Amino acid sequence: MEVDVRIFIMPKKDILDPATKAVTKTLQSLGYDISQINLGKCINLKMKKDKNIRKRIEEICQKVLVNELTEDYYYSILH
Q1: Which of 1, 6, 34, 67 has the fewest CB atoms within 10 Å, i.e. the most exposed one?
Q2: Strand, coil or helix: what is 4?
Q3: Are 75 and 7 in contact (CB under 8 A)?
Q4: Three-state DSSP class for 44?
Q5: What are the pLDDT digits (tens) for 5-64?
Q6: What's the pLDDT score for residue 67?
Q7: How far is CA 23 from CA 10, 27, 38, 66, in A?
Q8: Tens digits of per-residue pLDDT, 49-66?
Q9: Helix or strand holding residue 26 (H, E)
Q10: 29, 41 contact by CB (below 8 A)
Q11: 14: which DSSP letter?
């Protein structure tokens, strides 16, 4: 059986992200009362569900998708 996996990747809180800063300034200059924005990535995968699915997702994130020096991540397995 296949399931959908949604991986969310966000910059670490202490990392100054230029894209986030630019979007925040633009929205504020347009008059929106925004004090903070967090820009990140959402990646959707379709994977075979088995007893090792969490381990495989962790490996995918750590080996390919996430720079753990600058990014945090979490994921959801959708049934």
Answers
A1: 1
A2: strand
A3: yes
A4: strand
A5: 999 999 998 888 899 989 999 999 999 998 888 899 999 999 999 999 999 999 999 999
A6: 96
A7: 15, 6, 10, 22
A8: 999 999 999 999 999 999
A9: helix 18-29
A10: no
A11: T
Q: Which two structure tokens, joined as six digits, stand for 1? A: 């059986």
CA–CA gap between residue 1 and residue 68 (Å, rounded): 30
Residue 28 backbone phi and psi in degrees, to 5: -65, -40
Alpha-carbon distance 40 to 71, whole Å? Answer: 9
Q: Are 27 and 19 in contact (CB under 8 A)?
A: no
Distances (CA, A) of 31 to 27, 28, 45: 7, 5, 37
> Among 6, 8, 16, which Cα is nearest to 66's?
8
* Tokens (6 digits) for 39: 């820009």
